[in-house]
Amino acid sequence: MSTGERDTIADETVEAPVENSSTNRKQPFPQGFLDTISTGWAERPEKVPAPRAQAPFAAKRRAAVSAAFPGQRLVIPAGSLKQRSNDTDYVFRAHSAFAHLTGWASDAEPDSVLVFEPTDGGHDVTLYFRERADRTTTEFYGDATIGEFWIGPRPSLAGVAADLQIATAHLHEFRPSEGELVLDEDETLTRVVSELRLIKDEFEIAEMRRAVEITANGFDDIIRELPAAIAHARGERVVEGVFHRRAREDGNGEGYDTIAASGPHACYLHWTRNDGVVAPGDLILVDAGVEADSLYTADITRTLPVSGTFTDVQRRVYETVREAADAAFAAARVGVRFRDVHAAAMAVIAERTAEWGLLPVTAEEALDADAGGQHRRYMVHGTSHHLGIDVHDCAQARREMYYDGILAPGMVFTIEPGLYFQIDDLTVPAELRGIGVRIEDDILMTEDGPVNLSADIPRTADEVEAWMARLRG
Ligand code: GLY
Ligand code: MN
Ligand code: MN
After folding, report:
1. Ligand nearest to the CA of 413
2. What share of the chain is helix, strand, coil (3-state, %, to 5)?
């Protein structure tokens, strides 16, 4: 159900209801129901949980935000349910900044608001949310969107306060105030909370490792199910579905729509239609990431030979992409600019595509910042983006902190070069047309160099073939 008018069955007991989509198909509650529904329920003892592991980390993040905005009232909304169609909504997903600053993630309540109220010494922080309704209310049994009779137990103010270690209040008590800064409306606040996520803390890094681990299991599942995908007219959907099962069983779901792109579809960078066949002899590019319950997500791509072994030309393209990824990995060092990682990958792409005779210029000319770029036809996307609670994390950070920023310990980002030769690209020989390869890994920057969080997922052409042979018997 969308926000706004609620689907309150009890409303139908008002006199002469207007016939509409919520009244035309339901029976009004008779008086006997209304007289008895609120009684006969056992007491619910107040369960006060121990603080969740993320609570002290979220407290530090709030302290940083407080320090950046002395004397200002700050409002960080979780967001609301969004209508999908008629009276069905999309699954609620809290705003990433809200989840980051509260630690309230897949279990967050829609419409909640985190408020920083300025005080002499900083801010008093209160989390306003719609506490569960008492069983004497119509909300309890009559509201299909939020009533506990419909959607299951909802948390209490005391429970959430103990869990998150934040003062709580009922949403009814929240009042907007003049001059306050609201996330996504105020540019500075939006930027500051985005930049705050550039460096991950210990909790976040552990969650990202977990997200990668579940994702690795999802890729194993896909390989095991490839015969079923080959047998199905929409094999790409089989691949998508297999990964979805793992993501929902072991995590909150996918961090973004899975790309299951077989054959020439691999050349469409964000192919999520996934309605094609998975044909023996082709490559299938799978870009998929599990979002953990904390909302931190992995973002991994592997390109697999459907039949288990690469052809010579597929292997040549694949290993060139790997060479570009390895060059990017080697360039990723503390103190280096973020964009130099991309430059290292692109140098390999330019050199190899020039060597294969695909470019009308030399590699050196293609790499010229102003007049070049001819090689970008075959890899139009960037090599890296920050990764975290959003798949494209820290997206509101300033350019000087992001693309032109300096790599620092605690940053997590992808390295994901690719080569894509569209099926109708006349600039490449026929043998290359329809081949698309991307290899994407998730990298943690440390003082000692980059750590590939997804190193356990086979990467080289030989490793990929051995992986597939092992899982497919
Ligand atoms: N999965 C989207 C990306 O790799 O950026
Ligand atoms: Mn990515
Ligand atoms: Mn990806």
Report:
1. 2
2. 35, 15, 45
pTM (2 d.p.): 0.94
Report the pLDDT value the prediction gives residue 21, as an integer from 0 to 100: 58
What pLDDT sits at residue 12?
39
User: Which residue is closest in CA terms to ligand 1's atom 3?
Assistant: 299
Pick the CATH number of 41-195 from 3.30.420.270, 3.40.350.10, 3.10.580.10, 3.40.640.10: 3.40.350.10
Give me the pLDDT at residue 14, please: 38
Residues of the chain with pLDDT under 70: 1-23
What's the fold here for domain 202-472?
Creatine Amidinohydrolase (3.90.230)
Torsional class of 103: left (φ above 0), alpha (ψ -120 to 50), beta (otherwise): left
In sequence order, the 6+-apart residues with CB closer than 8 A to the CB of 296 are: 204, 207, 208, 210, 211, 388, 389
- Calculate how far, in angstroms, residue 289's C-alpha sits from the geometric centre of ligand 3: 7
